[in-house]
Amino acid sequence: MKSNCQYGAQHFRKMISLARQLPENVKQIIYKVLSNNEYFAHPEHLLLTTLHDSRKHIQELAVRRIQKMKNSSGLLFSKIPKLNFKAADYIDLIDWSNCVVTENTYAYKYKA
Fold first, then answer.
1. What PANTHER family would the database entry show (predicted)?
2. What is the pLDDT of residue 106?
């Protein structure tokens, strides 16, 4: 298991995947707890994870999203979007089309 924070979103998605196997009444309790503690599903953290993904096309997706942020005048995103508990991959934990994210310090080295 990789314990760096850059893998947090992947671990969070794995917890959701494991919770899917639980009985329905337990699953709903776990989903509520995960929804209240979904910091690894925050858009900026998801971008951090995508930048370190082993899949090249996911890294390129992250760079495109960062470039888009640099070209927008969005406000700092503080509300965590609704979780997609059916996500097959961590990049699908949130609906990217419904969130505004601003550039974070880790993105400075990625130039358009």
1. HTH PSQ-TYPE DOMAIN-CONTAINING PROTEIN
2. 53
